[in-house]
Write a structure and sequence with these properties.
Length: 87
Amino acid sequence: MPYTMEEEAVVRGLLRLYLERDSVDQVVRERYRTFQQDLKQGTLCRSDYQWAEMALRFLKPYWWQAHEDQRALENALLKTRILAGKE
């Protein structure tokens, strides 16, 4: 049960917006790039989803009400939680 195209776009877009900044720690940016590459190739594993869940949950207070679709982000976070919990 991978991400739908919409969920993938939401997750990719949100993480790109916040994690490609120079102010983000280099280790986090590298992990994000690995996640993006695995997402693009369709090779995400449980640890990728767990990392994405932590990143999305950490960034949740920063979601911009006026610029981001809150419902789509909540749905993507819920799906990520489900995927992170699968064995």
